[in-house]
Design goal:
Length: 335
C-alpha cells in the first residue's frame, strides 16, 4: 500500500508503556510511528530500541527502528498526525502535557491517553475540545531497564473506550476508535472495547490506589506487606472498599460490577499472593515524582465532593503525598 494511506501516529512518553505500544503500533503495518524520546532519545536515534518480551510471539528485538525519532513534539510539527498517544506518567508537569503535544495535534488528530488513574483525559478535553479523546487502561507490565531497553513481562491486554464529545459527530468518533483498535489488534495486543471506560479506570485505580501506594510506601512487595502484620490485609481491603464507594457514588448503576467479589478477586489474585511491586514503587525507589494526583488524591477529592468519608484514603494520601513532596524538592530526610 502507498505511504499516503499509512496512519501517522505520534507517541509521547516513551518509557515502558509508551515503548510497548509504539512497538505494537509499528508492528501493525501500514502505520508510520514517530516516537518522542527524552533520556532515551540518543540511544533510539543511534541504535534503535531493544525490546524483550516473555511472550514468544514478540520475543526479543534488537536495533528496532521507528519511522521517526524526535526530541520534542515541535520537531515533528510538519506532520499532521492521525493519532497522538500519551503514555507519559500522569504527574503534574510544567508546561502541562496538553501544551507540550500541541504542535503535533491538528484539527483531525485523535488523542489517546494510556495511563493509570482517574480523570486523566480532562486536561486534553479542555485544551482540545474539538478533538476526539480515547482512553486506555492497560494491564501490561513493562519496565525500561536502561535507556531504550524495554522488558515486557506480564499481560498483553487493555480496556479501551471513548469519552464521546458533544462537539464531534458520534459516527466520526466511533470510526476513529474502530480504526485504532484494528491497528492495535493487528500489532498483536488484546483490546476490549468497553461502553463506559470510566468503570475500568476506576477498577484499575482501585487496584493501583491500594497496591501501588502500599508497595511504594513500604518498598515491600504485595506478599511481604500482606504477611508482615495482621493490619496489612485490613488496610488493603479498606483502601479498596473506600475507593469502590466513591466509584459507586460517581458512576451509579454503571459501577455495579465493582462489587464485593471484585474486591476479593483483587485482594486474592495469584500475582498478589506471589508478590508484585508496582510502577509507583519503582518511582519511590528512585525518588522520582509519583502519580499521586490521579491515583489517590483525585479519588480523595471526589470523595470529599460527594460527601463520602474515606479515612483510610486520607491517611494514605498524607503519607504518599509527603513522599512525593520530598522527591520533588530533593529532601532526603534526617542527616
Ligand atoms: N510500567 C508499567 O508496568 C505500567 C504502567 N502503567 C501506567 O502507564 C503510564 C506510563 O508508565 P511507564 O511507562 O511505567 O512510565 P515511565 O516512567 O517508564 O515512562 C514515562 C516516559 O515519559 C517520558 N516523559 C515524561 N515527560 C516527558 C516530556 N516532557 N517529554 C518527553 N518525554 C517525557 C519519560 O522520559 P524520561 O525517561 O526522560 O524521564 C519516560 O520515558 C503511567 O500512567 C503508569 O501508571 C500502567 C500499567 C503498567
Ligand atoms: C503493572 C501493574 C498492573 C502492577 O500493579 C500496574 O498498573 C502498575 O505497576 O502501575
Amino acid at each position: 500500500m502507498s505511504a499516503q494511506t499509512q496512519t501517522e501516529i505520534f507517541v509521547f512518553g516513551l518509557g515502558a508503556i509508551g515503548s510497548f505500544y509504539a512497538f505494537i503500533l509499528n508492528e501493525a503495518g501500514n502505520t508510520q510511528v514517530t516516537v518522542c524520546g527524552r533520556s532515551n532519545y540518543q540511544v533510539l536515534k543511534d541504535h534503535g530500541m531493544t525490546f524483550k518480551s516473555n511472550l514468544a510471539k514478540f520475543g526479543t528485538k534488537n536495533n528496532y527502528r521507528f519511522h521517526g525519532v524526535v526530541k520534542t513534539p515541535a520537531e515533528a510539527s510538519s506532520s499532521k498526525f492521525d493519532y497522538v498517544v500519551c503514555a507519559n506518567k500522569a504527574i503534574t508537569m510544567d508546561p502541562p502535557v496538553s501544551e507540550q503535544i500541541a504542535p503535533v495535534v491538528g484539527e483531525h488528530t485523535t488523542i489517546i491517553v494510556i495511563q493509570n488513574g482517574i480523570g486523566n483525559e480532562e486536561e486534553f478535553q479542555a485544551r482540545f475540545p474539538n478533538n476526539t479523546v480515547l482512553s486506555g487502561v492497560t494491564w501490561v507490565g513493562a519496565t525500561q531497564v536502561e535507556p531504550g531497553t524495554i522488558i515486557h513481562r506480564d499481560n498483553n491486554n487493555m480496556q479501551f473506550g471513548c469519552h464521546f464529545s458533544k462537539n464531534i459527530d458520534r459516527t466520526q468518533e466511533q470510526a476513529r476508535l474502530d480504526k485504532i483498535v484494528d491497528i492495535f489488534r493487528a500489532g498483536g495486543t488484546e483490546i476490549d472495547v468497553v461502553p463506559v471506560i470510566d468503570v475500568y479506570r476506576w477498577k484499575k485505580t482501585i487496584w493501583n490506589g491500594c497496591w501501588n501506594t502500599l508497595t511504594a510506601i513500604t518498598q515491600c512487595n504485595t506478599r511481604e506487606l500482606l504477611s508482615a502484620s495482621p493490619a496489612g490485609p485490613v488496610v488493603a481491603r479498606a483502601i479498596m472498599e473506600e475507593m469502590a464507594s466513591v466509584a459507586h457514588a460517581q458512576l451509579g448503576e454503571a459501577a455495579a460490577e465493582i462489587d464485593a467479589n471484585f474486591i476479593d478477586e483483587l485482594l486474592n489474585r495469584p500475582s498478589v499472593k506471589a508478590g508484585i511491586y508496582s510502577s509507583m514503587c519503582q518511582d519511590a525507589k528512585f525518588s522520582r515524582p509519583m502519580e499521586v494526583e490521579v491515583i489517590i488524591n483525585g479519588p480523595l477529592k471526589k470523595a470529599k465532593a460527594l460527601g463520602i468519608k474515606t479515612p483510610t484514603l486520607e491517611t494514605i494520601s498524607a503519607l504518599i503525598s509527603a513522599m512525593d513532596w520530598r522527591f520533588r524538592n530533593g529532601v532526603t530526610g534526617p542527616p
